[in-house]
Every structure is written in structure tokens, then in C-alpha cells.
Amino acid sequence: MKVQTVSISSSDVPAIELRNLGKNFEDFRAIDDVNLNVAQGEVFGLLGPNGAGKTTTMRIIACLLSPTDGDVLVKGKSVRDPRNRTEISREIGLLTESPNIYERLTAEQNLVFFAHAYGVPENEIEGRIKKVLEEFNLADRRQDRTVTLSKGMKQKLAIARALVHGPSILLLDEPTASLDAESAKMIRTQISETAKMGGHTVFLSTHNLDDASRLCDRIAFISRGRILASGSEKEVARQVKRDQLDAKADRVSISLINSEGFSEENLSRLIAGSKSIHKNGDGRTFELIFKDEYSDEEIDSLTSKAIESLVAAGAKITSVVQSRPSLEDLYLEIVARERKQN
Amino acid sequence: MNFENAMLVFRKDWLEIKQSKQLLIPIFVLPVLMVVALPIIAVQIPVLIISGNSAGTTPLSQTFTLPFEISALTVGMTAKQAFVYSMSAVFFAPFTMLVPLIVSSIISSDSFAGEKERKTVEALLATPLSDMELLFGKTLASFIPAMLVTVLSFAVYAGITDYLDYPMFGYAILPNFIWILILVGIAPAFAIAATGLTVIISTRVSGTREAQQISGLLVIPIIVLLFGQTTGVVLLGVNTLLVVLALMIILDYIILRIGVRLFNRERILSKL
Q: B178 CA to chain A: closest CA distance, Å?
């Protein structure tokens, strides 16, 4: 018998792997059969409305809650095994929804406490604290009690605290929630730089689409504890459109001067790949929706061909407007549906 | 359990306590009142009674009859000395039990429920520190200050009492055996009970105030003791104190067992 050995490098192991994860709080099913993989070095965003299960998912990854069903593997180690708790905790830097810093203590005292709690060797603590404070531009506030810091600074300190023990994975729960626009931008920049420079895996939960769009390599939509779609922003948009939101599909509006000569039936024959064509109330504009299976690039190509066909048929086109639902449109539609169902 | 890790939690909480006026003021109000007001009351009452007795003809010994157990402690004293002694050294002793109880319930409410209220508990629980290390560290953080305040209060109380009463007795009447027993046995037992009860309550509630209000129920047995002394039903002599101590040790054991069982991450976070 021939035995084939396959070596798996540490980078092949996903940083975080959720396998059929389920969590009940008494009769309430907070997480339901969630499967996700986050690669090492990836910035992953979990998007969903309040109560969707984002924080619960993060707490399970951080060994704060135990799964009811399934498992979570952090760098291949199961959160179900109590012997892995210390090791997993040290791999993770957690930023909770509120800054979670001790306001009666100084910035330095906060960092010293957490460095010790995570088992950073005594001779490394000073260097680590200096590094994170400089990285987050807080060096001059080191001896200040944190109650005197602004909200944005507290959030920066909280991220510095999450990084002080040198974790490879950062769990960020709503990192820009309750911050003003300027502070939110500052925090986004900081997270982005930290992820790039430090090579951290970032698992971000948010209902801020801007955060997800700017920061994440991949995202997942979670609603009522279930993953609705996951992948790159484009992949998620396509999945959500196909599965949930037909009304929000890509559409092309074409306005013609001589529209009276073109009925909906004529246009259907002329334009390849269309799913539906409707004449608007003004009588001059047609709304065209392409079939679901087409990618964004294919839709662009079909739109060009449609224009060529119309011109060849004698249509005098005044404008062509292509509208594609943004991530925000899709997200808001999901939230609206959730509210209706509740 | 790693003792160093528990001490780390203790030191963090200790730093927080020192920085909080909201904690320090209530911690010191009762002891200050107690150590200043009670010795003065003890000395002034017999004076007021004698001056209120119009002709000054009724001796104090006929106005008050001391219970037998105290009479045994006051053999050879004049009526006035016996009265002052029984007030300062016996009747006011239950007030000393209030100090560890109140101080430890104030600190432990802030330490356990307060961390939930201030939303700092999640980051703390996410550290590799074990449940036992957290529990032990936080228990120390309320027990040690409670005992320090109790011992300090007693020292000042004894100092003022002896200063005021020395001219009457010609020797220091405190500390006596009752107070030493309270300091080394009863007070720590009450401090542990208050901390343990607050831990249990803190796993169920999300705010400091709720935790303090419920743990404040522990004051009831002391009020009962005070009331019992006033009416003569109970007297905090040595025998009674030993019974109270035995009961408190059993109560502490039960409370700590329940506290250890309830103090876990999942339960704490589910009530956030």
C-alpha cells in the first residue's frame, strides 16, 4: 500500500473555522448552523443588524461562550476543549463593542494589567507598551487616567490593549460604533494599517457598511443567526440578489427620443439576455433587468450589445443609466425584511 | 490556580478602589461615625442620666440593672464604671461587625457587578485568567480593604474610648476578649459572607446598585443582635459570640460553594 504524506504548513490552517456552529440561550436560537472559514492574514467582516448573532459568534470564538452545536477551530484548536482555552486566548486580541478599558486607571496601568494577564514576559512588557502607544499616537497620554481621554482615543487605547500581548488574530466587535465620523475614519485607518503591517487576521463584526467595504477582503451577511451569503463584496451582492432580493437586481434604464416605435415585445427580441423589460410612465424610458446568472462583467457586455442592437434598429438613444445596488442597498433591504418578519 | 494571577487581579482592583471617591466616601463614612460618636455616647449617657435625675438621689445602679453575663465582667466596678464598660466594651460591639459587612459589600458590588455595569468585564473574561483566579483575586480585593478598615476603625475606637475612659478607670478597658474575638473571627467571617453573597448576586444582576441593595440584607442579622441586646433577649458575651462565629463559618462555606459554582464566564456574560 502506498502511503502519501501531505505536509500542511501552519499558514494552510484557517485562522478561524466555524463548523456547523449553533448556540442556544434557553429556547432562543442565537446562532444556527454557521459555517465560515477565515484564512490567516485575511480581513473578514461579519455584517448584520443588531441581534443577528455577530457578538455571540465572536464570544464563542474568544472562548467566552461555549457552542451548543458544532465547533470553532482557532488555528486548528477546538474551543470545545478546555485545555485549549489559554492558548486560544493568547492568539486572540478582543475589542468588545464598548471600549472596555478601566477608566479609573491610566493608559499605562490598563496596558500593564492586560500584558500581565496574557502572560507577556516581564522583560518584554515595557517594550510592548511603548510600541502600541506609539503606534496609536497615545504615547503622550500614557500617564493620564483614561476617563480624561476622548471617545476616539479610548477606542484606540482599547485596540492597543487588544494588541499588547501580540495576538495573531484580532476580533473587533463594532469598532466604529458610537464614534463620530472623524474618529471612525481614524479608527478605520488604524485597523487597516495594523492588519497590513502586523499581518494580523482580522475578524470584524459591524453593521457599518462603510467599514466593511473599506476594510474587508471578504464579508458575510448574518441574519437571525444564519449566514445568508459570504464571499467577496461582489460575490455576496450576487448571492443576496439571487436568493433574497429580486427587486434590487442590476438594472439598465435606456431613454429614447423615438420610443413610440419600440414596444416591450420588440425590445425583448432585440436585446439578448434580458429577464424583463418595462416601459416607464414617461413613455420614453425602458427599464431592463438581465437574467440572474450573469456576472457584472457579462451584464456590462450585454448592455453594450443592447445599445448596438437598438442603434442598428434605428433607435435614437439619449441616455443609458446602469444602476447596480450597493452593499448598503442590499443590507438595508435585509434589515427591512427582518423588521417585517419580526 | 496560579496565586500570582489572582494577586494581579487584586492589585488591579486595589488601584481602582484607591482612585474612586464614590467608593472611598461610603467606605469611610460609617467607620468614622462609629469611632467618634460611639465612645462619646458611652461616656455621656451616664452623665445625662445622673443630671436628669432631679435630685440626683437615685443611684445609677438602681436605674439600670446589668444582665448577669455583664455583671460578671464588671465585678469590682462602680455603677458608673460598669455602665460605661458595658456600653463601650459590650453593647457597641455589634457595630464593629457592620463595618466589614458594609465595606466588603460596597467593594465587591463595585468589583463584580460594577465591572458588568461599566462593560469592562468582557475584556477581563477574555484573558487566559481562570475563573478561580478571577474569583479569588476579586474576593481578596474586597476582603483585605474591609479588614483594614475594620481594624483601623477598631484601633481608633479603642484609642478614643481609652482616652475618654482612662480617668474613670485608671487603665485601658479596650481591647478586651470580646472585641478581639470579633476582630479575628466574626469580622472576617462577615466580610467573607458579604463578598460571597455579592458574587452570587452579581452573576444575576447587571448593576452595582442592585447588588448592593440585595447584599445589604446581610445587615439584618446584626440589627437583630443589636435589638436583642437592647431588649435583653440576647447578650453578646463570649459564649454567644462563639455560637455566632460557628454559624458564620457554616454560612461562609455554603455561600462560597455556591459562589464558586455560579462564577463562570457564560453565566456572567449571559446577564450583560
A: 39
